What we know:
The complex is a heterotetramer. Chain B contains 3 helices and no strands. Chain B has helices spanning about 5-30, 35-55, 65-90.
Amino acid sequence: MEFFDRFAVPHPSPLIYASMVAIALTLIAVVIGITYFKKWGYLWREWLTTVDHKRIGMMYIISALLMLFRGGVDGIMMRLQTAVPENSFLDAQHYNEVFTTHGIVMIIFMAMAFIIGMMNIVVPLQIGARDVAFPRLNAISFWLYFAGAMLFNVSFVIGGSPDAGWTNYFPLAGTDFSQSVGVNYYMWALQISGLGTLMTGINFIVTILKMRAPGMTLMKMPMFTWSALITNVIIVFAFPVLTIALLMGTLDRQFGTHFFASTNGGMDMLWANLFWVWGHPEVYILILPAFGIYSEVIATFSQRNLYGYKSMVGSMVLISFMSFLVWVHHFFTMGHGPLVNGIFSITTMAIAVPTGIKIFNWLLTMWKGKIRFTVPMLYSIGFIPLFTIGGVTGVMLAIASADYQYHNTMFLVAHFHNVIIPGVVFAMLAGLTYWWPKVFGFMLNERIGKWGFWFLSIGFCLAFFPMYITGLDGQARRMYTYSEETGFGPLNLLSFFGAGLMAIAFILIVFNIYYSFRNSPRNVGQDPWNARSLEWATHNPVPEYNFAVTPVVNSSEAFWDSKKNGHNLFPDKFEKIHMPNNSGVPVIMAGFFFIFGFSFVFSIWIGVILAALGIFGCMAYRTFENDHGRYISVEEIKETEKKYGGAK
Amino acid sequence: MKELFPAKQVMGFVSSLLLTVVALCVYFLDMSFEVGMTILLVTAFIQAALQLVFFMHAGESSDKKAIYTNVYYGIAIALVTVFGTLLTLIWGYM
Amino acid sequence: MKLDKSQPLEYGTHQNQMNILGFWIFLGAEIMLFGTLFASFFTLENGVGSGPTGADVFEITPVVLETIILLTSSFTIGLATHAMRINNKKATLVFLGITLLLGLSFLSVEIYEFIHYYHVGLTLQTSAFSAILLTTLGTHGAHVTFGLFWGLFIFLQIKKRGFTPETTNKSFIFSLYWHFLDVVWIFIFSFIYLKGLM
Amino acid sequence: MKLKLAFISFAILLTTFLAGCEPLLVLDPKGPQAETTANVIWISIITMAVIVIVVISLLIFMIYKYRASKQGEDYEPPHIEGNPLVETIIVAIPVLIVIFLSIVSVKSTYEVETVPEGYENQEPLVIYAASSNWKWHFSYPEQDIETLNYVFIPTNRPVEFRLYSYGPITSFWIPQLAGQKYAMADMVTKINLVAETPGDYVGRNANFSGEGFAENTFTATALSNEEFDKWIDEIHSTAEPLTEEQFNKLLKPGHLGQMTFTGTHLDFAPAPEGEHAGHHHGDESEDETNTEHEDHSNH
């Protein structure tokens, strides 16, 4: 009986049961739908086994949007619970689970997936490549991420969600204080998707270093590609730390070791330390691609080249290294001496300098420009002041003595949402709108898009600015309730309204996709935005092989150059194109990983062993496999190009 | 037969054995902690460099810049992590 | 696939060059992985609780043996790569085979060592020190185990298919992996065992 | 259009500031440590406000002056690579600001970590504050009393809180008196503070510690020295002694009201410092030579 108890929802509430039913119904509907329309074959051939970077990118972004919905609902529930004093919408335990999953889902499964999806779609196009360096590995990365995300979401209905905060500090996250399997889910969901992320990192570094079009030196790469390169460097060196921390956490919870226990020599501070050695670079992993997108968008819609290209690159390189030097500012209050705190306070503030350079460069890019207020540009313009506010509050937090007062308060919550939402979320929406025609061949509706932007921005300000004040008034974060006398009530209510506006914005954005799909004219042409970088030199939507002829490039704004100065991007003739074959191995292997993770969470060792054998079987299959890919013939290329209206 | 044992690799192997013997001195001879650690640091890093250059052919391809940058970057960050962690959790306390 | 004849076969195609570079970057990540383990080891080294310390349980003989075995195997895999470059299939297979056998003997000694630890009362659960010690050694050991299977598969492929751009590329990458494990062991040998025994 | 956004955000910030009748706790200090942090916060707010205003003004200028609808149809924006002078300026100014704030940060951090200026000569009152799920236990070893979920301190006398935890990491925080610090299970951390005005102050655990975290609060009351002594005497005449059995019962997870005892739990359950610490920070050699109870391993 004990065995089965672990699978139960440890925290039954009507809300959870209702969502269980909803999930089950949706799943059944999806399965019936696919069967009815006989789409299983199509799904398998075209999507589940695909190694095409554009499709993998799309799947990342679709998953990211789903996770945004999940994390967003969590967020709204938190704001609703704290909207008024002594609210009883959620109880303490439920609230704890909600803010824990909100954090993980938003950072790992939403933001990371969004940026990786964006990189997948854009980077090969921007450097004139046919695909990424290791297309098969790319598929494995996606499916591992997906397996991790699904594993994490299963926790919600089987066995219970993690409840120790997304930072998961021990000993609270140890078995003494967190008895359900929730934290086990945390360990394995992050471990599996982290593995996928690490592979993405390697894949994109090699892609960018080795697959650039002829003529594209490093200093002639578009800025988004630069940001992707730096981001992936950070991924490669940061994620192994998480791997080890999670391994140690798993051993502590499931094998009775004492890494982070307070007995037998263990040290709870080590978890916090390792978590943030990974966690701080992680912040820059999220923000740098966003910076890249803003650089592209601002240059395009100011109709000017990016100001200070070299200093933009230099500042990113600097940030990549410095991001590994500041992690202690996440726990200034852990009782280190003022010496340690002083050192890390200074390194933290120093990062503001390269970041500041970027802000000024964007402003100077608009200078003497010809600014068009399209939706992507609106997000970029909204980003600058909001992110500046988030950035300067970050500098305030970096002052160690003052941090003793901000730490663990709503002030901190306001700060990091203030950098992540205008930083990452705005950028992803800008990028989504900007590159949408590239992938789908039609534009998103500008009017609805603008409404979405205004709801999101105003909602954001209403939701998060009050938190700076409640934080200074002593409201700790992660409190599921507070009393009337504290006086936190009105501002929290305001936050809730802001969150509501943000929810409306999300609905508008999703509706916009549907609306535009139905109503937008197709065949927007090759260059709907009057853009500048190489990805616009091919058709919309992009054909399977990206570029019919390998482009030859002479500047970071190769496409602009070809438009204005008549530079010939495609001097060569058609040649047959080598493409990788699709493969079912990645998705099957990720399936084994899911079973592995799930069995491990519940310590079902037979399942663990069988799944591990499955994983190794997939690897062995891969190494013995003799797959040389396939070729697209010149005739086929000509045919396709004709369909797009003229050979390029 | 001789062509199967290039001098460079044999040299590398012999020197790594020698370095191991030197490192073993810290166990067999009596010395202070500081001297011992210095010996270990020197022998370990030389051995690692030997492997990198003689056996792993790090500098032979056209990507050698990327490869060396990557290795140096990794070592730098790893050292930052090790010493930063020690500073934060052990040495830095008041 | 265009083949570049001016380079060794394992660098012969663009994809091969990318594979090698990609693996180097993976090794960069591995540096960080083991760096984290070392950071944790040094932090928890004195956290022995009521259990034994390193000086209490380490034995110099098996450690030296392991070191010599692994150094030799690193030498032989280097020779295998060399033999591959002078297109000597038989020698390559022999050296690769020796490497795998040495790897297997390394693992045997390590298993003996773990059994010894068990007998003197040092298990995963004893203390923070024992846990980080066994985790660090175990992570390295798991890498070696994985390498044995991988090497075996490559052995079979070379035997069956001879030297092709694929097999030479895989074999070269495997040699990088094996050398790297040796480098990691040198650090374990110096800063876990010798420092602990000093 | 962006104007609107900027104004709205600022208007909200301002009105909420002005609307709040009571001053915010952190910015309403009642002791020198909290005053230092409040001053630092004001300095940083002002410095940062300047940056924000400059950036927003520049942005408004750019999007107003260079919007497409205002430019001629045939206006072709120039190609500008960058300018060493401009780039030097945009590096130099942030560097200067960062240097200034670094000095402020380091100096104030040292200040709040030591006994406040002017109180160095007084013997500090030592109070152990231990958290358990989800309570605070205050032990006064000198006065030989123990309280639960409330603490009385004398005014104008340095108080040294020694923090540790029976369970998850918690964070001891009295916003109006000093910044917070973690309390952990295997070591003792310290906060030095002085209350200069008598009164009741809100105190809480600020670090998430599980189900009962939200209500993990206490009151800190600052009294004049005479009243404090009177209170101590009163307890000795009225309160029951704390037994080990009773203390173990108190440690059980849950919430309890305020309680008072004579004697402290330190007698039978010493704090994790000195020889009882879970781990040592590179000072083993000293530990062996030092046999005093009052020692250096206060981390």
